[in-house]
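Quick question, first post here. What does this chain look like in 3D?
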Amino acid sequence: MKRIFALLIAFMLLVSFAACANEETEITEEDVALYKEMLVNFGGTLKFDGSIVVSRKGSFYDFAEGIEDCSAMEPNSYYTWVVSGTENSDKVKVTPAGFESEVYAYSADFFEGEVNKYFGVSAEYLHGSEYYYSEPGCYYSDGVSSSEEYTYVEYVSAEKSDDFVTIHFTLTNTSGSTNHALTVKLLPEGGYNYVSYIAE
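> Answer (accepted):
Ran it through. Tokens below.
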């Protein structure tokens, strides 16, 4: 009788743990809103109708080969991302070393803060960029690739596992649709870091 009772308790605990696990991985409407925000912040633009399009100013979505480790790209690559999510008003007027006149550039504090917030990349690493000018402390490039057509980003589904979320979505333009996955790490203090962006 004791053995049956012990087995019954063990079964109840197992069912209870399974229920807790299901609750942890359940995707809510608030989760979906956050995941769409993550898609926008990765290099999209939210249109007035709620759709997400790839920024025409350049975007990580344009990296057709994908990104296996978002924190280990070439330092120059992060410039594309900052351009895709900022306005000219985020720049300051400076004269970098070697320039004869003033240009509009990102201050080092602004640029490094934006990148670190979503990618966890140190300022020291970013200083390896050819766009970094230690005097007067800014990031500047006179050319960023841009697109003539809209590419639409459509959320499909997501999976949560511990502190990671994998968002499945499609990119659609005149060439057709492709499937992709964006993996994001949720930070304990709030916020998140992008981990990878791959084709599926």
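The radius of gyration is 22 Å.
Residues 4-24 have pLDDT under 50 and may be disordered.
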